[in-house]
Amino acid sequence: MGELFGGIEAGGTKVVCAVGSGPDDLRAQARFPTTTPEETLGRALDFLRSQAETLGPLAAVGVASFGPLDLDRRSATFGCITSTPKPGWADTDLVGPLQRGLGVPIALDTDVNAAALGEWRWGAGQGLDTLVYLTIGTGIGGGGIVGGQVMHGLLHPEMGHIRVPHDRALDPFEGSCPFHGDCLEGLASGPAIEQRWGVRGESLADDHPAWELVAHYLALGVGNLICTLSPRRVILAGGVMERRQLFPLIRAQVVSQLNGYVQARQILEGIDAYIVPPGLGPNSGILGALALARRTETHRSRREH
Amino acid sequence: MGELFGGIEAGGTKVVCAVGSGPDDLRAQARFPTTTPEETLGRALDFLRSQAETLGPLAAVGVASFGPLDLDRRSATFGCITSTPKPGWADTDLVGPLQRGLGVPIALDTDVNAAALGEWRWGAGQGLDTLVYLTIGTGIGGGGIVGGQVMHGLLHPEMGHIRVPHDRALDPFEGSCPFHGDCLEGLASGPAIEQRWGVRGESLADDHPAWELVAHYLALGVGNLICTLSPRRVILAGGVMERRQLFPLIRAQVVSQLNGYVQARQILEGIDAYIVPPGLGPNSGILGALALARRTETHRSRREH
Fold first, then answer.
1. Phi–psi pair at B286, nearest 5 degrees
2. pLDDT tens-digit profile of B116-166?
3. Does the structure show a pLDDT above 70 at B38?
4. Is residue A293 within 8 Å of residue A29, measured between CB atoms?
5. What is the pLDDT of residue A305?
6. Of B123, B107, B25, the residue nearest B295 (C-alpha)
7. If you measure CA to CA, which chain A residue comes closest to B81?
8. By the CB < 8 Å criterion, does A182 face chain B?
9. With 50 as the cut, is the pLDDT of residue A185 above it?
10. Of A147, A155, A156, the CB nearest to B146
11. Do the beta carbons of residue A132 and residue A254 sit within 8 Å?
12. Are B14 and B32 a contacting pair, CB within 8 Å?
């Protein structure tokens, strides 16, 4: 029996907790709605503590959270959610209460960076030193691996907020992003679809022109990520991408928009294996949280031995 | 006396060669036009060989070249310029002839990745684990450091070819990029300026409306790079950026376009130190080539000891 880890995937509407060591060893899981920070973190703590009593001690816990997050270990607010518009959650310390409550190392990253790590370790990105994970749902968020490392910098990526061409003659919708109007998220997220067509995307038929337009914007976004990062694979996830007819539309438009400029056979001849759904399905995030925890443990062991 | 290194900066119109170990130790330099691959590589080889005879043996040579390049060591065409439209240069092997002619390790990267490395080692990016270097001239090219490593992936970044919003009512110019029309390079490079206004940018007055429009597009591009990579600094170089009035225009537009979404004081309060010209001036590329060479030597030594 190997070591046990805890994972917390904290989303804007629900939280998933798990104990295990990977996709083939998920011992326990729990789901509950995201309410106040105190109640939500309390439930996560209770679950992990009780599982540790039953299953054995946890070596570390990974947290994959909605953001924006302060991930700078030198910062006074390290481990906190910072300026989220989500009521009650701005300036919430995630790492502190968990570390005090569990007494084990806590690893924190954005939900999308964690999902990218999970896909890299066990899913559609195995063995690739550079990949992008983009989720298209209530918002659009992106994370990735570059040079074998999870992407960080000044803060963390906010790929959903890149600007893309928007022809207002063809698509007069102003965009749904409260910060930028017609950034990628403002044009192609779930709320953008709902605001533009007056019904939720789930209600639109597979042959509704919405999907061609959404694919057009997502392809512009993916093309920009390809030109910027040169990923070895692009993983598209999230509620909107559940409409699987988007994949062939996006792939065709990415190839057409790049117009042969990026001379890689993976794009020119193998686009079906280049732009793909997540290998871990809906579990990229929670498994990514376990992958974060495992990595912390590895680092700790390396330092100690 | 430390070790000596050679550097070659191969541009589309001219080549710069140097021997030394860094910005304070440049022992010899040469410049000549880029003609045929045979003649051009021959002159570079002659220069480095003769300098090695006079100054002492070179430990390694770094090559910072225009691209696109094959940088995959497992590829049969590793070390080659691939699909360039530059006449005579498609499928040119750079590494092979230099390695055979000099008998030392040859490090190759794109001109912009090398410049990013040079700026990281000795210039405006010292101590930063994540930075972007964008050059705006005959084309627009970008490179960078992410997690302390030069950016590579499927190929290398082609940041000049990202798409940005283009309001054809305000700016009916179709764009100058032969591949994409109005990508960033197509809207804001030197040729785009010349084609749109009928004269070279050098002839346009500082208060010509051209600069506000060029700054607008460059700010959209820089904003996209910030949202994607979260760099700790953005270095803007190249002939177009010699017009220093662009810097305050771009900085103001980046702040305004991001609209407070990226909550980092470096952007909100310190933009003048965040978007900057290269610290090494016009020498980022050739010093980057030396930095590439030094890194190769370091790696080789580490393996050997």
1. -70, -35
2. 999 999 999 999 999 999 999 999 999 999 999 999 999 999 999 999 999
3. yes
4. no
5. 34
6. B107
7. A263
8. yes
9. yes
10. A147
11. no
12. yes
Chain B residues closer than 8 Å to A264 by CB: 154-155
DSSP state string for B53-115: HHH--EEEEEEEE-S-B---TTSTTTTEE-S--STTTTTEESHHHHHHHH-S-EEEEEHHHHH
The CB-side HSE value for A12 (13 A sphere, CA atoms) comes to 14
Enumerate the residues of chain B whose CB falls inside 8 A of the CB of residue A139: none
CB B45 within 8 A of CB B34: no
Whether the predicted pLDDT of B5 surpasses 60: yes
- Interface mutation vs chain A, best among B70, B133, B158, B162, most A CBs within 10 Å: B162
Amino acid at B161: H
Mutation site, A145, A228, A269, interface B, largest B CB count within 10 A: A228
- Span A263-289, mean pLDDT? 97
Whether A264 and B154 lie within 8 Å, measured CB to CB: yes
Tell me the pLDDT tens digit for each residue of A99-123: 999 999 999 999 999 999 999 999 9
Closest by CA to A185, choosing from A157, A206, A214, A211, is A214
**Nearby residues of A266 by Cβ (< 8 Å), 6 or more positions away:** A232, A273, A274, B154
Cβ <8 Å between B153 and A68:
no
Q: pTM for the complete prediction?
A: 0.96
B263 CB neighbours in chain A (<8 A) are: 68, 82-83, 155
CB B194: neighbour CB atoms within 10 A? 16
pLDDT at B67: 87
Strand order in the sheet with A14-22: A25-33, A14-22, A4-10, A58-65, A106-110
Give the Cβ contact number of residue A126 at 10 Å.
12
- In A248-277, the residues whose Cβ lies within 8 Å of chain B are 257-264, 266-267
* pLDDT band, very low/low/confident/very high, at B85 (cuts 50, 70, 90): confident
Question: What is the C-alpha to C-alpha distance for residues A296 and B8, in angstroms, rounded to an integer?
Answer: 41
Nearest-by-CA chain A residue for B146 = A146
Asked if A122 and A79 touch (Cβ cutoff 8 Å), the reply is no
Segment 38-97 of chain B within 8 Å of chain A by CB? 68, 82-83
Token pair recorded at residue A274: 């280049």
C-alpha R_g of chain A: 19
Query: Parallel, antiparallel, or unpaired for β B58-65 and B106-110?
Result: parallel
